[in-house]
Structure formats: structure tokens, C-alpha cells
Description:
The chain is 58% helix and 1% strand. The protein is an all-alpha fold. The protein has a two-stranded antiparallel ribbon.
Amino acid sequence: PHLIPHDPAVVEAARRGLVHLASTQPDHPAAPVLADVVASATPDVRGEVIRKLLAALTPPTPHRPAVVRALLRLGCTDPALVPHLWDMVATWSDRRGVVGAVENVVEAARALWRVARDATALINLLRRLLTETKHPWIVPAHHSAVTEAAGALAPLVPAAATHLTGEAAFTAPDRDRQVLAARLTWAVTGDAAAILPTLRAVLARRDTPAHEAARLVADLADAGVDLADIESLLRPLLQPGKIVDGVSDENGYARAAAARALWRLGVPPAELTATLVDAIQDRSRPGFGRPPPRCGASPVSTRRRRARSSSVRSAAGCG
Length: 319
């Protein structure tokens, strides 16, 4: 839906769908998806939908993450959300094997910072990721939250520093953690020298952690950091991955992020266009270009994800 949010007919259909769900099934998984579309509407339209969704939370009803996420995507910062956000954090923090659980927790913790300027939940969440011994499950939302709440995350810098070893960790989840630690350190301290050796090592190993590493490189380039030696590590990431039994390997996932980083480093867009077009075509094939399952992802969780996607399409009237 984020590809066509400005089509008036689509926005109006999404608005009607959200208003209907607000009175019938506010926690339907389609609510956040429709909210992504309505977010491009006028303030009056958004205000109408926000009022109806807030009414669905009165009296307080626990365990309604979908309606809360829809409100957040509409830009709602009403203090009435705060108890529901804490409920989301408490309910989903120990359910990392459940589809959407990690995203629910991160979105709620980030929103507590945005709505109440309370970083407690976010600090606790990130500290757990940085210090736990088992493989972390890190999603792009973690990186966005770090960037947004950087000013409140100084207590986590020592924990992040333990992962900035200058060498790539053995497993992909641990390299994901290294990139998150690098982003946090950069966001809080602005010390690029502390993170670049580890960032180079992760890029050299390629596969999925290189995606977020390349995104961080682009941000560093925007900030004017000298990254002349990084280009040679990014260019190999432009190469397509391989497909085995209909599923992509891990080497194709970072292509778009690497192209963006190279552009920020001054590479002419004409040199990158063919790679991006090819990446789009590759991603149209089943399974290609998507991150491989992390620890804990199972055939059962994959089936649940597919069932949820089907449910969302049905509620949105997409067949």
C-alpha cells in the first residue's frame, strides 16, 4: 500500500475500511496496513479516523496491538496511548517466536519515547539485545528507533562497545548485533573511528547483515565522514545472489542498500541503475532478495505469516 498512498480513490477506500474496522474489529491485522495509506490524507481525514480508533480503546482493552500500531502510523501522539503501549511491551517481550512480536515491542518502545519522552522500554529492549548470550532477532525497526532516540541512549554505549571488535562475528545474527551496536555508538557519540573497523569487517562477510551495514555507511557519508576505502567493499554487494530450490541465498539481500551507499559516496547514478533494475526483477521471483529465516523462524511461523498476509488482503478488499 505504501506504493500508491496518494491516489485519492485508494486513500478514501482505506479510510472507509479503517472506520469500519474501528467499530467492528479494531484489532484486525489490516488496520496498520490501511493506516499506512490514510497517513497521506489531509489532517481532517486523519483526525476523524484517529478519533474513531481511540474510541475503540475506551474502556481500556488490553492486547490490541494492531489498533495501537494503526494510531501510531497515523501520527497520533495522544497520551491516552501510553498505557496501551506499556501493555504491548509487557505482552510481547517474551514472545519472540510469534510472528510480529518483535516488531510490536520495538514499535511500542519507540512510541513511548515519541509520545511520552520515556526511553525506559527502549533502553531495556536494546540492552537485552546487546547483552544476551543467545542469538538476537534484530529488525530494521531497531535501527530506526536508535536513530530517533539517540539522545537518550548514552547508558548503552559501553554495552555496544563490546561488539565493536574490528572483526566480523561468526554468525549472521551476531553480525546483525554488531551493526546495531555500531549504529547506536555513532548515533550517541558521533565517533566514526570507533565503528568503522567493525563495519568494514561485516561488509566484507556480505550476506544479510551487510544490508544494514550498507545503510549505516550511507548515513555516515551524508554526515561527511571520510569513507574512501569503503567503496571496494560495497561494490561486491551489487552482485546478485543465487537461487537454490526456489529460495535465494543471502548474498543478494544487500544490493539496493549497497547501491544507495555508493550513490551517497558519489558514484554516478548511471553506474547503479542497471543493478537496481536487476534487483527489482530478482525480487519479483518467489523468495528472492528477502532475508533468510533467522533462528526461531520455522515452517509453522512461515505458514502463520502467509495466513496473516492473506487475512490482511481479504480485509482490505484485495481478493
